[in-house]
Amino acid sequence: MGLSLSVWPYSRADDSPASSSSAFLSLAAPTSSRLEVTLNSSPVTPGDGRSHWSTVHRSPHFLLSACKQEVTRSPVERSSDGVRAEMGVKSGLHVWEVLWSPKHRGSHAVLGVSWQNCPLQASGYNVLVGGDLQSWGWELKTNQLWHAGQILGLYPGTRKRCHSEAAESPTPLLTKAAETPLPIPERILLVLDADAGTVGFIVAGSFLGVAFKDLPSRVELFPAVSSVRGGASIRLRYLNGATRDPPALMALCGLSIQHFLGQQRQNQMHKLPLPSCLQHYLLSSQ
Predict the structure, then answer these.
(1) What is the tens place of the pLDDT at every residue in 18-31?
(2) Triad 21, 105, 152: Cα angle to 5°
């Protein structure tokens, strides 16, 4: 049904094998009903303007496809290059799909969000998204979280704590278990809750929790990537979003029924003794 965590299709050849999904499943974090309803809603049309990379806000080393949904980095040495989405958001909860083959990432492959003025080109090999105060980035090869040019911690894993937190407990900032990076598959969902000021990611059907919090409110935020790998092709698609309002009761009922049935019995909804309007809603959403 829609974009449900339990039933996302995986058909791309570069995705990690199903056996690796268990590693992310063990790290999955609880999702809010607002996010679950968004994920269970049918995706918007592929041509939605929020699925476009910007024609202006990109490094000249990123070539834009005719449909504006894919960028490809030119084989330029000693350069770090970034691109932002054409449209940003100031409010609501939003989910984008990013397709970026692990074979075409190399080092400094970063996915995140930025303000409109984040640098998008620099000499040498650097983290651009997360390299300044106006951007927040997840480096996919090392699993490092970056903001203001600093490593905040590992994701999924632990984060650096503020000085007051560190003073209260001698626990190391990064656990030993988190020191080995997890291989991130091709398909990643970026979850931006502009109302709560948080960013998280969904990998292999598992929401890995909040990666960044306390993002500025009422500031337009854009999905963004940066790369140093020649030939790296990155696709963007906006999937769906939700306002600050609570989810509709009908949508919550649908979620409850899905949870009751479980993944193995999703095709048996027509057998349930439900009102016809709810039956139609459930079947049309599959």
Answers:
(1) 445 678 888 888 88
(2) 75
Nearest to 137 by CA among 104, 89, 98: 98
Q: Report yes or no on whether pTM surpasses 0.70.
A: yes
> What's at 207, amino acid-wise?
F
* 38 close to 241: Cβ distance less than 8 angstroms: yes
Above 70 in pLDDT, residue 73?
Answer: yes
55-72 confidence digits (pLDDT tens)? 999 999 999 999 999 999
For residue 148 the two structure tokens come to 């203001």
Q: Is the pLDDT of residue 120 over 50?
A: yes
Cβ-Cβ contacts under 8 Å for 124 (sequence gap 6 or more): 78, 79, 80
DSSP assigned state of 89: B
Contact (Cβ atoms closer than 8 angstroms) between residue 107 and residue 202: no
- Amino acid identity of residue 272, one-letter, is L
Q: What tokens appear for 23 in the block?
A: 């590693």
The per-residue b/e assignment along 46-57, b for 16 or more CB within 10 angstroms, e otherwise, is eeeebbbbbeeb
Nearest to 81 by CA among 48, 142, 123: 123
CA-based torsion, 214, 217, 219, 224: positive or negative: positive
Cβ partners under 8 Å of residue 17, min gap 6:
none
Question: pLDDT of 192-222, one tens digit each?
Answer: 999 999 999 999 999 999 999 999 999 999 9
Would strands 79-85 and 222-227 be described as parallel, antiparallel, or unpaired?
antiparallel
Q: How far is CA 59 from CA 46, 62, 79, 147, in A?
A: 24, 6, 10, 20
Size of the chain in residues:
286
User: Between β-strands 62-64 and 222-227, what pairing exists: parallel, antiparallel or unpaired?
Assistant: unpaired
Q: Which residue has the tokens 């003794």?
A: 273
Identify the residue whose tokens are 């490809």: 72
